[in-house]
TrEMBL record:
Cited Gene3D superfamilies: 1.10.1660.10
Database matches in PROSITE patterns: HTH_MERR_1, HTH_MERR_2
InterPro entries: DNA-bd_dom_put_sf (IPR009061), MerR-type_HTH_dom (IPR000551), MerR_fam (IPR047057)
Name used for this protein in its record: MerR family transcriptional regulator
SUPFAM superfamilies: Putative DNA-binding domain
Boundaries of every HTH merR-type domain copy: 1-68
Alphabetically ordered keywords of this record: DNA-binding
Organism expressing this protein natively: Streptomyces virginiae
């Protein structure tokens, strides 16, 4: 299928699909005319990428974990490296949340001043 059809099936615009390909998250063959040619599996791949992005993962991390994602949803074929990587991402996310809480508390104190 061409990029426009993949965009229609996934709801992801063509520009983002090209970006995913450039980041190594999506594969496309090239036809004789140079157009990208996606397989039916590309629809599921895009959905997985979108789900992992929604979980707050970077494209770099997604590129590492995507080969271990199985099935239609996001289910992992666990290996120690992937679990360790995701544990690290969760810890970094917790740290960002704590920093935001501290920043929020500071700003709230400023607003309480007369």
């Amino acid at each position: 299928m061409l990029i426009g059809e993949l965009s229609r099936r996934t709801g992801v615009n063509s520009r983002l699909l090209r970006y995913y390909e450039a980041q190594g998250l999506l594969d496309a063959d090239r036809g004789p005319n140079g157009y990208r040619d996606y397989t039916a599996d590309s629809v599921a791949a895009v959905r997985k990428v979108r789900a992992l992005l929604a979980a707050g993962l970077s494209t770099e991390v997604i590129r590492s974990v995507l080969p271990c994602v199985r099935g239609e949803g996001v289910r992992f074929a666990w290996c120690e490296e992937i679990r360790s990587l995701l544990d690290g991402e969760l810890a970094a996310m917790d740290a960002r949340i704590e920093n935001l809480r501290n920043s929020r508390a500071t700003l709230a104190c400023y607003l309480e001043q007369p």
